Amino acid sequence: MISRISTTAFALCLFGLASAAFAVAPDFMEKLADDSRPLEDRMRDGARRPYQVMQLLGVEEGMTVVDIGAGGGWYTRVLSAAVGPAGTVISQVGPRALQRENGQAARELAASLGNVEPSFEDIGDFEANIADVAVTALNMHHGNAERLIPYMRDIGNLLEPGGVAAIIDHIGLPDIDNSRLHRMLISDARQWIEAAGLEIVEESDILRTAADDHTLSTTDSTLGRNSDRFLFIVRKPQ
Question: Where in the sequence is the domain holding 222, given as residue range(s)?
């Protein structure tokens, strides 16, 4: 097991944050490095850049945030650390999780973190204007325009006016079977975001990597789960 001291030192070196001013909870980096966080999650931080993503989103202590399609909870844990005990993370795992073992896992994760509420609703059933920030990571490549433009509208609906969301997914190339590779075109994501009435605030390259040539499935072990990814920061109009 990596010690807390060595992991914290690594994280500070990696992110260059020793003298940074934190908008997130002041113990954010300590919580990311803590042994209570799964080692597998900590090992992904170098590629997924949690601090930088939180900064782009403007996540602050005390906010209400939604992790959409939370899966195993990597972003749920990061968001929980970012908003601190005064904040709330809604970890949306969807209704199908109730029929699978990850439904219980979502409940257990929420209980362990203290500021997390698991949700088994579809995002289209969420109340309007409930969140400052939302994240959807690696969920869009499963659909098409017919499904994903309404999905983007649902994300906008749950945000407060002026609220922001991170849209993250695996990058694909034209003229290949991206659905088989669990990838999608950046141009499609951009088009669907704008069609849903959301404003693109920033298109960041912080999750890009030249080590992925886009010809492998994102599940291929040689990628080590570190695919080339796009990141859009989008805003709900005031």
Answer: 4-235
